[in-house]
Amino acid sequence: MIKRPFIELFSLGILLINILFMSSVRAEPDLIAVAAEHPLLQYQENDEIKGPSAEILKLLLQTSQLEAPLDFFPWSRAYQTVLNRKNTLIVSMVRTQAREDKFHWLIKVSELVRGFISLKSKPENSIRTISDAKSKTIIVIRDSYGHNSLMNLGFSEKTNLYVVSSLKHGIALFLSGKVDLIYTEPNILTDYFTEQKQNAEALISVHVLPETRRESYIAANINTDTGTLEKLNLAANKLQTDPNYQYYLAFKALIKK
User: Fold this and answer.
1) Is the pTM of this model over 0.70?
2) How far apart are CA 120 and CA 232, in angstroms?
């Protein structure tokens, strides 16, 4: 016969194991958000998360009564995280046909314009068409929308794309004259020169083509819990008429005049 004290001790042990297991489960948040830092949309400054897209995320979470800590990663890691991790949001991802069925698209955060940007000191790098651009060497960020979209338009790393891991590195290479063009949002370069107390209009030319206009969204992993997804979609629908959402959506002009 098993003695009573042993049974009680065994039961206590099982209870402690369950408590430890539940604590470890709670240690990982149910919902997280990831993003790549973007100087116009979402970024960290003095340990604070700022930017219009980050503010839209806050509105979405407040309205849905959900919490999701936001972590910044290089773009490729952020994309792989939301692609593979359940209950993950990504802030500011361009909506494309290739990505359409891989995510739940919640709410628009920006209307993006990307352009081929050249130095005015090198007028030979001015372009008017995609064919013109294919004859140049172009900086793009690895695994970004710009990288993938140019590849889809027939550009190649073997012939005309110079792929880098960060925008900061890309801007440095572009300004050094080691490449002909940089493919990014025009305001990024404008803001960069403003910080350097230089006149962007005197230094760069922006070439925006019809093929380079897109919309960016907050999206969720395809396997996000149904209840969580319903709350997020209800909140997103409610925000469509919210003045604060409209303000942040139109926070910055696409191209400064």
Assistant:
1) no
2) 46
- Alpha-carbon span 76 to 83, nearest angstrom: 11
Instruction: Collect contacts of 11-14 with beta carbons under 8 A, ≥24 apart.
Output: none
**Side-chain half-sphere CA neighbours of 25 within 13 A:** 6
The arithmetic mean of pLDDT across residues 51-79, rounded, is: 95
Using the CB atoms, write b or e for 101-111: b if 16+ within 10 Å: eebbbbbbbbe
CA-closest candidate to residue 236, choices 139, 134, 110, 109: 109
Best CA proximity match to 108, nearest among 123, 121, 91, 124: 91
In whole angstroms, what is the distance from residue 178 CA to residue 175 CA?
8
The label of the residue with tokens 């925008």 reads 167
* Number of CB atoms found within 10 A of residue 195's CB: 9
Predicted confidence at residue 252, as pLDDT, reads 52
For 37, the 3-state DSSP assignment is coil
By C-alpha distance, which of 77, 169, 80, 36 is closest to 44? 36
pLDDT value, residue 167: 83
Query: How would DSSP label each residue in 149-168?
Result: HHHHTT--TTTTEEEES-HH
Among the ranges given (42-46, 69-73, 186-190, 235-239), the one the predictor scored with the smallest mean pLDDT: 186-190
How many beta carbons lie within 10 A of that of residue 17, not counting itself? 10
Residue 19 main-chain phi, psi, to 5 deg: -65, -45
